[in-house]
Prior knowledge:
This protein is an alpha/beta fold. It has nine helices and six strands; from the N terminus they run αβαβαβαβααβααβα. The chain has helices at residues 7-18, 30-43, 59-72, 99-121, 143-146, 158-179, 206-215, 221-233, 262-275; strands spanning 22-27, 48-53, 78-81, 125-130, 185-191, 244-246. β3, α4 (99-121) and β4 form a beta-alpha-beta unit. α1 crosses α8 (221-233), α3 (59-72) packs parallel to α4 (99-121) and α4 packs parallel to α6. The longest helix is centred in the middle third of the chain and has 23 residues, at 99-121. The radius of gyration is 18 Å and the shape is globular. The protein starts with 6 loop residues before the first helix and ends in an 8-residue tail after the last helix. Residues 212-218 have low confidence and may be disordered.
Amino acid sequence: MTGATNGIGRIAAIKLAGMGNHLILIARNQAKAEAMRLDILQTIPDARIDFFYADFTRLSTVAEAARAIGAKYERIDVLINNAGIHAFKQRVTSDGFPEMVSVNYIAPWLLTAKLSDRLVASAPSRIVTVASEASRRSKGLTPDADLHDITPFTRLGSSAIYGRTKLMDVMFSMELARRLASTGVTANCLDPGFNVTGLGRELSFAAPLERFLNFLRVGDPNRGAGIIIALAMARIFAEVTGGYFSVKNAAPLILKAPGGDVDARRRLWDSTARAVEAFDVSF
């Protein structure tokens, strides 16, 4: 699981540990990871938690973490792609990609690709990707251009860019389900709804806003964590694949164009594969 040291990912990881699962968590910040390990062990002394480290703005670290995980573990039952960021200005990674595109989409794509053989060998297994209904604000998608678009933007313009990365996540999950059909590996994605935990980490007023919304009981992060756990663990989803589900009662969501376009999903997949070909991906 990625993105487990903050927000709904942290809540989901703690609950998964409490269910007796062996957690393999990919984190960027070692101090946060160790603090989380101690927190879990205080309440679940026999919890099994292993950490690997990767920076999703540096794809070589993602590939290395995936190689290490694949070498160490004989099976992976569930892969949860949860890490994400909503940036309010453009930043370019050391690999030359737009930061939000790298963190929210390309890095999870690469991680999944590198672990796909292990997931297939472990079947029945599941891949769960945290997308968002923000994808409806994406204003379309042009794969080759958008994967590499480093045009500056402001806070006001950030929502469409963030939404585009989440549309990519949805399309990735749908195409993944098609490619893994009949392997015993399911692939689904979800909208976690509005969650105050980890809200707007780049906003100067994020902390007081989070406290205020918690006071009003708005944006309960347990709901977002709950839909992640359901898709990862619930029997009713054991054989479901190619779905996009709402935090509201796990209702199926209708895909916004071009999310439902099979050819568009293939074009995005092919463009992404070309973008990361230096990392020896055969997926």
